[in-house]
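Because discrete structure vocabularies remain unfamiliar, it helps to consider an illustrative case, giving the amino acid sequence and backbone structure tokens:
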Amino acid sequence: MVLLLPVFVERSSYLGENADSAKGCRGLEAAEEQDVYALLEELQTLPEGRVYTGKYHYELGNWGLEYLAGCTFLQTMALNQGLDTMSSLYHRYSLTSDVLDGFDESRWEHYNLFNVRYVIAPEGQPFPEFVNLRDRFGQHRLYEVETTGYFDLVGSELAFAGEKDDFLPAAASWLSSRLPNAKRHPAISIDKTSSGFPVSFDQAPDAIAQAERSPVEDRGTVLSEESGSNFYSGEVSVGQENVLLLKASYHPNWRATVDGRDADTLMLMPGFVGVELSPGEHQVLLEYKPRPLRAVLLVLGLLLLPAIAVAEWKREVIATWFRQRVPGRSSAG
């Protein structure tokens, strides 16, 4: 016990400091709680769009790293309220996660690209004129930006292919170019090449530089849109053959229908979902449908939990039954 005394002392000191820190954080959060939750409640009544509370990349640095209510990031509080936020604070699983680091607060097309319709920021944080102040909540400010929503009509004349590890430099080159403003989103193929994807990711910067010289085109209008827990739908008017962009991470499980008919999806820069459309007005539905294996695993998991409970409850009975039927087993202790 004497040998363990330093460990007990260190742990006791650590837990005491942690308790004091938590108490201090609760006090700071309580002082701002009314303002912050009033702001978040107002957001829940507004038209849908992503919420931006700064970036959280420690190497790049940004005001978001220091924007807290007490000891809690504002982005965490927004997430806890079920709001759609534009950040990769807790994980970087999707292909677009690292691309978010290139988000430029001074460029409207970046807000539109990620459908950043709302910005929460501390008092005094500067923004461009198109980021319009909507309301004040104590030391917090709520801004609004006009975007096309979760959908947009874009062109996709370029096509890039390559390995996943080579994607980010190509995406960063595209994001910093004028192509997002021109709504030109190259098609992407990961880990494979084909005749339809003639440009490799390492050649993308040169191809992007050439494409920047093309004029901006009027591609049509998104007339309306709706979203749910696993779907986005919209009505669009297309003047020429274009691609409808859904500003959400691409996955093969996205299923598309156009005017009630199945349609193929494709991956567009910077890792979003696209559906090709012909001229005219269309009703488009994109649903995320997990593969059947996921449902099977879910059912097996639900069945396994009560089975484990029964096995634990009848452990002695099962052990006795097992010893009686397995040769060579004995109850010798």
Remarks:
- The first strand starts at residue 50 and ends at 52.
- The two ends are 32 Å apart (CA to CA).
- Residues 297-325 form one domain.
- The first helix runs from residue 5 to 45.
